[in-house]
Amino acid sequence: MVMSVLTISSTREQMLESLTYRRTYNGETIAPMDTDAVAERISEKRSPTSSIGELQILPLELLYLLFELSDLQAPVHLRLTCRRARMLVDASPSYRCLRIHTPHVICILLRVGIASHFTVSYIAELLHSDSRCSRCGRFGSFLYIPECVRCCYSCMRFHRSTVPMTKADSMAAFGLTARTIATLPVMTTVPGTYGGGLRAERSRPIQLLSPALARAAAELQHGGKEYLVAYIEGKGTQAKRKYDKRVTSRLALLALNPPEYDQDGNLAGPDWDDVKRYMAAMPFPYLDPSLGDIHDGMSCKGCRHALDNCSSSSRAEIYHRVYRAYTVDGFFEHYVVCKEAQHLWKSLGDL
Ligand SMILES: [Zn+2]
Ligand SMILES: [Zn+2]
């Protein structure tokens, strides 16, 4: 018998309801609620009474193009000048998309001070054109702020390249000058309590940046890779010698105590679960362009059940599965290979 489209659709709905759940990440990364006051200002509505001066002569299409190609800070500042400017900026397609679906992203990028490094169109594209994690290619429901790229929860917590550097460390490690640093997105952290298993309180803001971007800028500044390597291998300044000593002792400690998963699925080890990871990330949903739906991902109940029966040797792999989030299509692809989800669905049918 051929199943009707309606039956298939309702079965999919039932499967999603029975086999998935939404993970909460309260207090782990920069929280949208930190920015409520700014979000309110962004959504303020009043009628325009003034003009936008010489910009008024441009056709609407050109104005919208200008806003799209501007860095995120420019239209936000422009819209604060008068109500007419606010109305125009708010009506431009890419900014509108960000303001409606992810006002917290605008607020946080402004607040941490890197909104001037990324254009409105780049961030809007990131929201709806590609849901993949920049590190592993799976669904990424977080933004790694220092590079303004998507990343998944696992990569945010455990990937080597998502531990941001402090500005002082990047200057010591790569010999970056203040002029080079000024060209890079350096974020100022928001004080608060962060981390999964860490729950670390950070009351003073610090400045963080991506080690990969810092290294790439240092290559340019030193005049090529070989000159940068010569700098890294040399003794350098006192700050560099201190930095090198700290890194060497940390690597030695890690070699002696390789990180292991504890009972709560946290990687325990010296400095492994670095709180800077959480301070440099925020939730970043995916806007499905065909349906207009916004997704922050769903997790698999089957994988969570698998934790109850797993051996200690497979614990690491199972934890990574439990941390994973999926889009609707992504979940059904996962279902095909997830024996526990299939078993759970079958057992529900037998009830
Ligand atoms: Zn990933
Ligand atoms: Zn599963």
From TrEMBL:
Query: PROSITE patterns attached here?
Result: FBOX
InterPro entries per record? F-box_dom (IPR001810)
Domain F-box per the UniProt entry, residue ranges: 52-98
Q: Which domain of life is it from?
A: Eukaryota
Q: What is this protein called?
A: F-box domain-containing protein
The species is Asterophora parasitica
